[in-house]
Amino acid sequence: MSILGLQITHIIFDLDGLLLDSETIYTQVNTELMKSYDREYTMELKTKTTGMKMDDAIQTMLEHEHLVGTVNLEEYREKYLDLLSKHLPESRLLPGAMQLAKHFAKHKIPTAICSGSNTFEFDAKMKNQKELSDLIPLHVLSGDDPHVKKGKPEPDGFLETMRRFSVKPESAENVLVFEDSINGVYAALAAGMHVVMVPDLRYSSPSEKCRDKITLVLNSLEEFKPEITERGRLLMAVMKSVLKITHVIFDLDGLLVDTEVIFSKVNQCLLSKYNKEFTSHLRGLVTGMPKKAAVTYILEHEKLSGKVDVDEYCRKYDEMAEEMLPKCSLMPGALKLIRHLKAHNIPMAICTGSTKKEFELKTQYHKELLDLISLRVLSGDDPAVKRGKPAPDPFLVTMARFEEKPEKAGNVLVFEDATNGVYAAIAAGMHVVMVPDLTYMKIPDELQNKINLILRSLEDFKPESIGLPAYDRDNSE
Question: pTM of the prediction?
Fold first, then answer.
């Protein structure tokens, strides 16, 4: 257990997407406006503009979408403000925000809000948040504050906030910033402050440039554990628990090989014949299940049980999948990680809901993957696996089949992309890294604090962060 003690005396919070769930409102408004100009408000564009002053963000969007000269900034702003005035008062507190604000107020830790909002936006968002405003009375709104020349990612907003505390911090290093956006993180680091990032992984994650400089990355403010000293100063202990991981188990579909898109196409094609749709929600519910269990669930969910035979659906499914599955490619970062673990003699296995036939189709052009991971448990037709994911059976059978057995389930790390797989790994008593496709999957609240890491891609995985050997500097795929 390594502990880094920081002497933190002052706290600065961002607002949107950190204390208040207002980012969804901004997304809805910009999506509606961009659509009126035959443009799309993409996650890339959201990432680029989050945290900026309003006019800077609008100008960036117009330039990015080649609308400068076609759409007037003032025209866009007027429509933008009109929509915001209707929806921003609907902003709700995010989990853990009020608890943390009350905690700091109780212990007399000076706190402030530093936001890219202007006064109009801030007042609209805080209309129904009087208690939060009372708990954090210092507000620096760089959207129209004349003393803040440049918005995030520049440090001006945070430096101005530090100057306005009635009791000044001794230095910027005594200030801890809470941020959700990458622009805000850059601004805090440029100001010389420590930063806790609570990113929305759909559009924001710590970049390579600043990942090692962020003090802590959390899934939610609820996860933050402050420790207060007797003198009323915040002593934050950032603890990196070094887990003893000796064995690794990988899921297959959507994690190592890009097959989930194929499954969606096949199911959509089959369900469309019955005037049904294979929705993202339904996809999230069945991902990770063995095929027959998934088909049974789909038919029940769509009220087709008794009208459509499960075995007949499976037969048609197999016919279509057989043509498409051999074309699936490896997911980014998969081969690099597996080569690395092999080089360090970490025992590995694949545990999948596939049948033997499906597995062979998916992997027939991925010989190196098969050579590197010789142990595979295919719960789709393995007689020893009585129940598929989300039950723990597949992972427990896999653990029992390692030639060199783990001392206990707590020494096993599972990589999963599906909620059902995560439930299975946790039920088996194992640690889990989740690499979800957030376009169709929402991670249940009950799992948030039980998952060791949530990543956008296997490329983002740092083995040393969870007790495994670090990549060599010259390591490449």
Answer: 0.50
- For residue 434, give the nearest of 220, 234, 219 by alpha carbon: 219
The domain in which residue 177 lies consists of 7-19+96-200+214-235
Alpha-carbon span 221 to 97, nearest angstrom: 6
Read off φ and ψ for residue 352, nearest 5 degrees. -135, 155
Q: Is residue 240 one of the residues assigned to a domain?
A: no
Each residue of 259-283: pLDDT tens digit?
A: 877 888 888 888 999 899 888 778 7
Catalytic positions, please? 251, 253
Residues 350 and 429 grouped into a single domain? yes
- Name, in order, each residue with C-beta under 8 angstroms of 415's C-beta and a sequence gap of 6 or more: 248, 249, 250, 251, 255, 432, 433, 435, 458
Interatomic CA distance for residues 407 and 314, integer angstroms: 39
Taking only the tens place, the pLDDT of each residue in 148-162 is: 999 989 999 999 999
CA distance 461 to 248: 14
Q: Same structural domain for residues 104 and 231?
A: yes
Q: Are residues 440 and 452 in the same domain?
A: yes
Asked if 288 and 416 count as a contact pair (C-beta separation under 8 A), the reply is yes
d(C-alpha 133, C-alpha 385), whole Å: 55
Quote the longest CA-to-CA distance of the chain: 73
Is residue 36 a part of any domain in this protein?
A: yes
* CATH code: domain of residue 115: 3.40.50.1000
Among 306, 327, 348, identify where a domain stops: 327
For residue 310, give both structure tokens.
């499960």
* Cβ contact 53:183 at 8 Å: no
48 in the Ramachandran plot: left (φ > 0), alpha (ψ -120 to 50) or beta? alpha
C-alpha distances in angstroms, 36 versus 30, 32, 63, 76, 132?
10, 7, 16, 11, 36
- Does 302 lie in the same domain as 429? no
Residues 117 and 62 in one domain: no
Q: What is the pLDDT of residue 233?
A: 41
pLDDT of 256 above 60? yes
Q: What CATH number should be reported for the domain holding residue 82?
A: 1.10.150.240
